[in-house]
Amino acid sequence: MQPFSLVWALLVLISVSCGGADAHSRHYRQVLTGNQPGVCRYGSRLECCYGWRKNSKGQCEAQCEHGCKHGECVGPNKCKCLPGYTGKTCNQDLNECGLKPRPCEHRCMNTYGAYKCYCLNGYMLMPDGSCANSRTCSLAHCQYGCEEVQGEIRCLCPSPGLQLGQDERTCVDIDECVTGKNLCPYNRQCVNTFGSYYCKCQDGYDLKYVDGKYDCVDLDECAAAVHKCSHHAVCLNTQGSHRCRCKAGFRGNGFECSAIPDSQLGPRILGGKPDNEDIKNIIPEPNTTPAPGIRQQPFDYDGEVYVGTRTEEGPRAEFPEEEEEEEEDEDNQLNPRGDVFISEDFESALSPGTEIKEVHFGSVQEDFIVDCNFDQGACEWVQDRADDMDWSVAYHDNGAEYYMAVSGLLGQQEDVAKLKLLLNDRAQQGSFCLTFDYRVVGHNVGALRVLLDNSVYPVWEQSHSRAQSWQTEFLTVAWKEKAPQSIVFEALRGTGVGGEIGLDNVALTSGPCKEDVSPVF
């Protein structure tokens, strides 16, 4: 008995030490539990397995790096797609009509995320999707089969995007993009297809997976080198588009830039060189001894900056040198200004027989300040961060030009979207005319307001357009003491659903508006 007891004690010690070693090794090993999905045991601790994350409810939730567009994430980077969709991220349509066995007895039409069965002429679609022979249906001559409803035969269309035509037998397409029945987000464009439609990003945007969902983000045409700017221009990326600006020493629209001739880069006299044949307001040379030169109204400018009085000489000392150059530069002369006049001091220097001819020129055009349109404008626009929603880019019917808009499908009643135009020093020097195009379309969609700085009282407001087309408004902005720093275009949300508030072609010109009789202070 003693040897047997000794052997039994040794076996017990070996089993205990092996069990302890095994427990020690399991402390660092991930062991799945069968109670909850995604929960693993780390020694005595229960935590989420690799590829799972604890949600707000304390449950372990699977993580899919690229998301599951039409499905759910059931495991690490593993999606379970809804019926009608396929792909690693469930973002592709499943063509059920191409499966075997075919899901339809006669004809099958695939739609996005689903399919539709319809029968040949002379057959009737049954509730279970099968086709039954029907002499009555054959006599109806339906294009896509028919069904019996309360004893009456009615032709069918295989897709919700189709409807019966006037003959009640053939199916015609429904343009969801025109009727407004599409479900495209505000930043996507609807494209109609036969029997359906799809949504694509607006021009200048690209579809990308951001923050767990697919969204249209701005495409940087400048960085991607897909712009059409000239080699002598600089590409400037904007939201949804880009602009081209000619480099220094070149001129043009940015897409085509040509070098500026050297003769146009230096100082010049507004009005060009005198020409005895074309310009008739030149003072004739007096027969008497010329009097000392008297300074005229200074028109020596470089661009718009006065460069000072030039060295004055007698009238006879200046013209001989220029007569030789007139023939060569005749085609390059600038048109004379309409505000040139003759000083009364010169009358004393003229002989009694000298006749002074007065020439009347057209009035000078109003001084243009800045063009603030959203395509090629040069203004600084700012979206207010303290408002309820933002203005977004919308395209005109031609698809080439765009404007800013607030959709009637966004926000709630009394929500506002503010778009600020920051005024430069030139606009703050005096009164100016504010011109802009607008439209307020839709029943009770809201109102468009114009305010100065942070004022709560609008200087202009419109709650509806006189027509569906664009309207133009002129506002004279003037002040008594302090010049405004910004102009605010505020869209106020109404009670209606649908419609739009649009803004485009904003411009500032110096002086009061010709069409406006009531200045805004």
UniProtKB/TrEMBL annotation:
Upper lineage ranks? Answer: Eukaryota, Metazoa, Chordata, Craniata, Vertebrata
Q: Which SUPFAM superfamilies match?
A: Concanavalin A-like lectins/glucanases, Growth factor receptor domain
The species is: Betta splendens (Siamese fighting fish)
Query: From which domain of life does this come?
Result: Eukaryota
Instruction: Output the Gene Ontology terms for molecular function.
Output: calcium ion binding
Q: Where is this region: Disordered?
A: 312-338
Ranges for domain EGF-like come to 173-211, 218-256
**Annotated family:** Belongs to the nephronectin family.
Question: Which gene name belongs to this protein?
Answer: egfl6
User: Where does the MAM domain start and stop, copy by copy?
Assistant: 370-515
Q: Name one Pfam family in it.
A: EGF_CA
* Localization per Swiss-Prot or TrEMBL: Secreted, Extracellular space, Extracellular matrix
The protein in question is named: Epidermal growth factor-like protein 6 isoform X3
List UniProt keywords, sorted A-Z. Calcium, Cell adhesion, Developmental protein, Differentiation, Disulfide bond, EGF-like domain, Extracellular matrix, Glycoprotein, Repeat, Secreted, Signal
This protein's GO cellular component annotations are:
membrane
Q: Enumerate the InterPro entries for this protein.
A: ConA-like_dom_sf, EGF, EGF-like_Ca-bd_dom, EGF-type_Asp/Asn_hydroxyl_site, EGF_Ca-bd_CS, Growth_fac_rcpt_cys_sf, MAM_dom, Nephronectin_domain
Q: Which GO terms describe its biological process?
A: cell adhesion; cell differentiation
Could you tell me where the Acidic residues compositional bias lies?
320-332
Q: Where is the signal peptide?
A: 1-23
